[in-house]
Amino acid sequence: MEAPKFLHLLSIACLLISATATSDQIPKPYVVYMGSSSSNNLEFEIDSQSAESYHLQLLSSIIPRSESERIALIHHYSHALSGFSAMLTESEASALSGHDGVVSVFPDPILQLHTTRSWDFLESNLGMKPRDNFRYQHLASDVIIGIIDTGIWPESPSFNDVGIGKIPPRWKGICMEGHDFKKSNCNRKLIGARYYNLQPAFDGNKTRAAEAKGSPRDNVGHGTHTASTAAGTRVKNASYYGLAQGTARGGSTSARVAAYKACSQDGCSGATILKAIDDAIKDGVDIISISIGLSSLFQSDFLNDPIAIGAFHAEKKGVMVVCSAGNDGPDPYSIVNTAPWIFTVVASTIDRTFQSTIVLGNRKTIQGSAINFSNLTRSKMYPLVLGEDVAAKFTPASEARNCYPGSLDYQKAAGKIVICVADDTTVSRRIKKLVVEDTKAAGMILIDMDNKDVPFDAGVFPFTHIGGVEGTQILKYINSTRNPTATILPTSQVPRYKPAPIVASFSSRGPSSLTENILKPDIMAPGTAILAAVVPKSTEPGSVPIGKKPSFYGIKSGTSMACPHVTGAAAFIKSVHKRWSPSKIKSALMTTATMYNNIRKPLTNNSNYFSNPQEMGVGEISPQSALNPGLIFETDVTDYLQFLCYYGYSQKNIRYMSKTNFSCPRNSSEDLISNINYPSISIETLNRHQKPKVIRRTVTNVGFPNSTYTANVHAPAGLVVKVFPNKLAFAEGVEKVSYTVSFYAKEAKSGYNFGTLTWLDGKHHVHTVFAVNVK
Hints:
The chain is an alpha/beta fold.
């Protein structure tokens, strides 16, 4: 009996091996990264053509003649970086990876989108300086922001160019036409627009490059929202159907915008994003904003991540790259876009929220969070039921409680307000709402502690979101009467909300899973319920209030919304300090960030605990303060090359990346990463039984020529932190001074210890946040 069973298992194994081997030979898109481009501005066109020819020869050397149609480049990178993307089998990709001059070869990943009042809040309600941006706005017109996203809706009032001068002559970009986009859609505000739609198409075992009908026009709304948040002009009386009414504006209202459409609703090709970054650098942008990232569950190392690769070469060319950190919070190690040359942004709330009131049959009211434009009033009550009370036949009560698709009985639920819970996080709020709405229910109440700080937009459907305490009150009411009833009122705005900001519940948290010796995230900015421009069309039935036209403005939440706030702030700094490098601007924003909310208490997270740097970075951006930071930390390309050495990459590949004869330090180890000249400090392991760990930093004086700064350390009990020297003296001709910080952990508690080192000169407060993991 055993022999046949063995043969059967053997045959299954052979089939599996055969299937795997076959799948390995099906071509799919790969990125071939070959380091830095050797071209310079004068030779670019010639070098680009010769490089393209070389890359095609490389492909022809590994692709069989019988499949010659695959000897084609999907994307070609030749300005800031060198390489291409093409259709390859796994074995062909493996063969290419060993080729001289190739740094890495990896499958083209699919990246995800990280999806008014906020600027006023940043500039006034946090106790910052009075708003005086107006005197700087004429300077900002020379700053060019590249937005890599889902495209742009050019007709939005946020991209009006009235009062904006001539396009800077250094701009080398283009305004691509499409089936629904004309060159005339670009103007002195929206100075460039590109789209990428060369899609790999599969035809059995054959592949072909099929160009879809495309244009730079945004049909999703994400790119338009992020672009207007970063650099939208002032638009009075903007609102979302009356909510969040006021003047909509970006952080740098006179900055120019260039849109690079690299994404759709379904995501973004990593190879396409890399091409967009390369194009943006060539076009002449100053700052690139990317509200996109890999999943935190499938993070690649730095040389297999298209955003990290592109951002490295942008930094080399003097172009800042600002990225969102991801929406996978509040779990630790969920942060993405963590390369030290990327400015990584997490999301916070602002001092405005939206509430939808529940009125119970006993006339008690409970405040919930939501955006809905329902037509329900206090005058009519509806039966109030739990999800399990209206369960479909043979449906487990737990599924009906969570309002699973197919779990509710249409006849039982129709005309009632249904209460759903969130025991199971696999079913989103949106799905629960659609499930209940589909039954013709009168409304829905969601009981869930998570994401309560993020108002969900339910359109015209009566919906509200409450926490556990409020949920208990409703359940007590249901148990107190035979015929419980309720109604859900349309949303009202709550201004001057306190405390704010807090770390948004969805915002991804550090430390980075790639290395904990760089503190990530870097900084926090508004990302919850942000009003900005959107695509003015109805994408979903019931999303537009009855009798209203689609709105030009919408309210969205996500680190996608936080990222362009930092982009706009960086553009504002760049407009005043035109010669400042990306690392200078980054340092200025980081060392001047605020760690206090609008009631002058330390910042908290959505659980009402004090927030730590792995949740908020160095704190909330303070653009006005960053104009005059006093001291800055310059992190140059040598620092980043040393980082790559310390991380463990080969010197050969690092030389390809830098196109120099750079040599790694002799004793390269990962713990030395803490010593690169970064505006924050993180130590992955500090052994309590070993001698103090010494970290070195160098600061550059950009304040008064003759000044002295004194160190002030706030450290947790048991962690001994010493600074040498504890005074930094700057005089004429002395711009840079180095110092060391030692950390001794003998009496410190195990795990991460957080604190700050602040340099004070009587006018400036230069904050350096530290995170030290004691073991």
